[in-house]
Specification:
By secondary structure, the protein is of the alpha/beta class. It binds glutamic acid. The site of glutamic acid (GLU) has 9 residues, from β10.
């Protein structure tokens, strides 16, 4: 068989050889041990949690070794592509603070010496390498139609034989040059398949950098390299691209594990150095007690837009994902509460081998801790940025008087031990609604042990002594001073020692005041709240309560 003639017949337009590209994309000049990683998302929809997670793992692996993290767009499936898909993915990564060294750095711009970083623009490269495989007798054209392949599959299934295009089932494996010429002149479409030298009875062993040693049968399937429209399959594009872009570590979703024998085989046949593989377990979710993969269809949190809409700080989401990525991150975080996660010594071996569970409560907890570290001005800026995009009404309220809003946000925040309360920006409207007249909803229900007569007596007395200049202690002292005059104990201790002698204690009366001023039973420091609201507003609310109980 004249393989050169076959190669020219099948790909006449290709006149470059692999050497051309090997020279064009020389080895990277990086220090020993530097890892080159990437993500290769398809622009078929929004950025989802799995891609963000993979990006984080790849980014931190590159960062911690002084390497490079790049993005490559796998846009070979034009039918499933959505407009603005690249932009959505890249801007999403930026939003979460994942920096990109190379590849697509925005929806339209690429950076780096190893491009183009978009598979639809690399057709000539793929074809050059396929042509070389054909020349070496390692690839051949297959003219089987979809119907024929389905028929073969049915027969295999009926006979309980492993399905696929392998061994004696590989119909065109030994096609001659003449047959090929004849079929081409009839205008029959064809794909290019690998002529696999593998044997199912042999085993390949590889060391997965995350999952450890894995053993699998060698690939004997003559899988497709180039589809009939000249577009490569994922397998082939992965080998060519990651070779030419000098990826050292392919860290990707573990749905690709079963393809590793194909990939290792391809790298070897092409004469490429096999990269290290690491397969990332998917993030799962508990659904009715059973674990399942987070689903783009069923779960709002599958789309990372969800986190932005809810007003999670992107840093909180990333820190949460770090706890998912590495079993020792939480201990490190406790020991280094103020250090950026980027300083964490990430080790792929510490990644969970089985599926990690998405735990919203943990995310909320991580977020609360992070928000509690912010000062009121930082919160004001982030909150208003969020509200501008997702809650226009609230944005208007927050920005009507920025100084007032900042003093609201400073309550229990710009203090030595800030309160850990807010986890995400969409909680703030409800949390502080009573601080804004447009949102305030009065509530006139009283604590169980305070009747309306006592509440009235207390509020009337309190109105006369309230002074916004009082500090917390003076503020509470005034409540304590009123307590005995209406049968309440000034001190809780006193009340507890002799419950029959009192109707309640000063704390119960401060609850009455809290309800009058905020409509709530639970709030941050009431003295600060009243100072920020100002005397007029407080008195007005107290009067309103007096009228309604
Ligand atoms: N487009 C592939 C995916 O999203 C890329 C896998 C890889 O990283 O190699 O699953």
């Amino acid at each position: 068989m004249d393989y050169n003639a076959l190669a020219d017949l099948l790909l006449p337009e290709i006149n470059k050889t692999p050497e051309y590209y090997e020279k064009l994309y020389p080895a990277r000049n990086l220090p020993e041990g530097a890892r080159v990683t990437r993500i290769a998302p398809s622009p078929t929809g929004y950025l989802h949690l799995g891609v963000l997670f993979a990006a984080l793992v790849n980014r931190i692996t590159a960062t911690s070794t002084g390497g490079i993290f790049f993005t490559r767009i796998e846009d070979t499936d034009k039918k499933r592509e959505v407009a603005g898909g690249i932009e959505d993915i890249i801007s999403g990564l930026h939003r979460f603070g994942i920096t990109i060294d190379e590849g697509f750095i925005s929806g339209t711009e690429q950076r780096g010496e190893y491009g183009p970083y978009q598979q639809s623009h690399r057709e000539e490269i793929y074809k050059t390498y396929v042509k070389e495989l054909i020349r070496q007798g390692l690839a051949y054209p297959c003219f089987c139609t979809a119907e024929e392949l389905a028929e073969v599959r049915e027969i295999q299934e009926a006979q309980k034989i492993r399905t696929g295009y392998h061994g004696e089932w590989a119909k065109h494996r030994n096609i001659t040059l003449e047959e090929t010429k004849a079929l081409i002149s009839e205008g029959k479409p064809f794909v290019i398949r690998l002529k696999s030298p593998g044997n199912e009875a042999n085993k390949i062993v590889f060391e997965d950098t995350i999952k450890g040693k894995i053993e699998m049968p060698e690939n004997d399937e003559d899988f497709v390299l180039l589809k009939s429209d000249g577009i490569p399959t994922y397998h082939f594009a992965h080998a060519v691209d990651d070779h030419l872009m000098h990826t050292t570590h392919v860290l990707r979703g573990d749905e690709w594990i079963s393809s590793v024998p194909k990939h290792i085989q391809l790298f070897k046949l092409l004469g490429f150095k096999v990269p290290k593989y690491g397969h990332i377990s998917p993030i799962m979710k508990l659904d009715g007690g059973a674990k399942r993969k987070i689903s783009k269809r069923k779960d709002p949190e599958a789309a990372v837009h969800f986190f932005a809409e809810q007003g999670y700080m992107s840093e909180a989401v990333i820190n949460y994902l770090m706890t998912v990525a590495s079993s020792d991150f939480e201990d490190w975080r406790r020991a280094n509460p103020d250090t950026s996660y980027k300083e964490f010594k990430f080790n792929l071996k510490k990644m969970s081998v089985s599926c990690a569970l998405f735990d919203e409560n943990k995310l909320l907890d991580v977020s609360k801790t992070m928000v509690a570290k912010l000062n009121s001005v930082e919160v004001y800026n982030m909150l208003t940025d969020w509200a501008k995009e997702y809650d226009e009404e609230f944005f208007g309220i927050l920005t009507a008087d920025p100084e007032y809003t900042k003093s609201v946000l400073a309550i229990d925040r710009d203090v030595p031990k800030p309160r850990k309360d807010i986890a995400k920006w969409n909680e703030v409207k409800e949390y502080f609604s009573y601080m804004f007249d447009d949102l305030f909803v009065p509530d006139f229900s009283l604590p169980e042990n305070v009747n309306s007569e006592d509440a009235k007596a207390f509020l009337t007395a309190y109105k006369n002594v309230y002074n916004p200049a009082d500090d917390r202690q003076e503020w509470f002292q005034k409540i304590k001073d009123i307590a005995p005059t209406i049968g309440f104990a000034a001190e809780t201790k006193e009340y507890k020692a002799n419950r029959d002698n009192f109707k309640g204690h000063a704390g119960d009366l401060s609850s009455v005041l809290r309800i009058a001023v905020t409509g709530r039973r639970n709030t941050p420091d009431l003295c600060s709240i009243m100072q920020v609201l100002g005397k007029d507003k407080c008195i007005k609310r107290i009067d309103n309560m007096l009228k309604n109980i």
